[in-house]
Design a protein that fits this description.
11 strands; four-stranded parallel sheet; 13 helices; alpha/beta; 319 residues; single chain; TIM Barrel; five-stranded mixed sheet
C-alpha cells in the first residue's frame, strides 16, 4: 500500500482512532509516484551536512523533505548537528583546544568536544565546512530556527530528536524545546496531508511524549539493525507501535532482510521510510538510483532517506 491508499485510510479512520493519543497517519502530499524523497542531512553527498549549503542544494534538487538532526547547546538552543560532539565536522580542536573531555569508553582515551559544553555563540565561531571541502570554508552550524526559515514553505521539515537521553543526563530537555519551536512557527497543527513536517527519533520515550504534546504531527520511530527488532516480530507488534507512532524508519538492511514488514506496517496504517541510501554504498546494486527504485517500487516503501537527492527515481523503471 502506497501513500495514496494510506491517505484514503486516514480520511476514513474512526473518530476514536484520531483522538486516542496517537493519531492515524497524517500523510504528506505524495509525489507523482506517491513516494517521498527525504534529503538526508540535506544533500549531504555534495555539501557539508546540516549546513545552509546542504539544505539549499536539497531544495534545488527537488527534495520533498529536508532532514535536521537536532542537538542542544549549553544554553539550551536547538542546533542542526548529527553528532553529540563537535570534532568530526568542525575545527573545534583549533578554536577551543583545551575544552575537550576524555572519552574512556574504548580501549584508549579519545578527546571529545561535547555540544552541551558550548554556548551557541561559541559554536557559531566554528568552521563547519572545511572538513568536507575547502570551497565550503566558513560555513556555520545552523540553528533549528534557521533551518525552518530556509526550508518551510519550500519543502517539508523532518527533524530528528537525536540522542535525547544524552541531554536528559545533563539536565537539558529536548522535547519541550522542539514543541515550542514548532508552535512558534505554526507547525504543531499541520493540515493532514500538508507535507509540512514529520518528527523522528530512535528514542521511544521521546516519541511517546511528542505523541501526547503534539499529536497532529506525524512521528517516525527509527530502528537500527540491533535495536527495535521486537516491533518487527509480527503484524500485531506493529499495531501496538501505532499507539504512539505513525510510521517506522528502519535501516534499509532490515527491510531488505524482512520485506514482509512493509506489508505488516501498511496493514497497521504505518508508513515505512528506510535509511540511508548513498551512491558510495549501494550493496548488490550497480547504482544508488537502482537501489532506491528497488525499495520504492518492488518493496513498496513510502519514501526513503538519501544523501543523493538528485538520483531519486520519481517513477518506476521501465520493464
Amino acid at each position: 500500500m502506497g501513500l495514496l491508499a494510506g491517505l484514503a485510510m486516514t480520511l476514513a479512520a474512526p473518530l476514536e482512532t484520531i483522538t486516542s493519543g496517537a493519531a492515524a497517519p497524517r500523510l504528506p502530499a505524495p509525489t507523482a509516484a506517491g513516494k517521498l524523497l527525504v534529503a538526508h542531512r540535506g544533500a549531504s553527498a555534495y555539501a557539508p551536512e546540516h549546513t545552509l549549503a546542504a539544505y539549499q542544494l536539497a531544495l534545488d534538487q527537488g527534495a520533498d523533505f529536508v532532514e535536521q538532526d537536532l542537538a542542544l547547546t549549553k544554553d539550551g538552543v536547538l542546533i542542526c548537528l548529527h553528532d553529540t560532539t563537535l570534532e568530526r565536522t568542525t575545527n573545534v580542536e583549533d578554536v577551543f583546544p583545551d575544552r575537550f573531555i576524555e572519552d574512556r569508553s574504548g580501549p584508549s582515551p579519545v578527546r571529545r568536544w561535547p555540544v552541551y559544553d558550548f554556548t551557541l555563540a561559541e559554536i557559531k565561531k566554528l568552521d563547519a565546512g572545511s572538513w568536507f571541502d575547502h570551497k565550503f570554508a566558513g560555513a556555520r552550524i545552523i540553528t533549528f530556527q534557521e533551518a525552518i526559515d530556509l526550508v518551510k514553505g519550500k519543502a517539508g521539515l523532518f527533524p530528528e530528536l537525536k540522542d535525547p537521553a544524552v541531554y536528559r543526563a545533563r539536565g537539558l530537555a529536548m522535547e519541550p524545546l522542539v514543541v515550542s519551536a514548532l508552535r512558534k512557527n505554526g507547525l504543531d497543527h499541520p493540515a493532514p496531508g500538508s507535507g509540512a513536517i514529520i518528527l523522528q527519533s530512535f528514542d521511544e520515550a521521546s516519541l511517546r511524549e511528542m505523541a501526547k504534546r503534539i499529536p497532529d504531527v506525524p512521528r517516525i520511530l527509527l530502528m537500527e539493525l540491533d535495536t527495535g527488532g521486537h516491533w518487527l516480530a509480527s503484524e500485531a507488534a506493529l499495531r501496538d507501535l501505532s499507539v504512539f507512532a505513525t510510521g517506522i524508519g528502519p535501516a534499509k538492511a532490515l527491510v531488505d532482510q524482512r520485506p514482509e514488514v512493509v506489508r505488516w506496517a501498511h496493514a497497521a496504517r504505518l508508513n515505512v521510510i528506510p535509511y540511508t541510501f548513498r551512491a558510495r554504498s549501494t550493496g548488490r546494486f550497480p547504482t544508488v538510483r537502482e537501489e532506491m527504485a528497488h525499495f520504492l517500487f518492488s518493496l513498496d516503501v513510502d519514501g526513503l532517506f538519501t544523501d543523493n537527492p538528485d538520483q531519486f527515481p520519481r517513477q518506476p523503471p521501465k520493464p
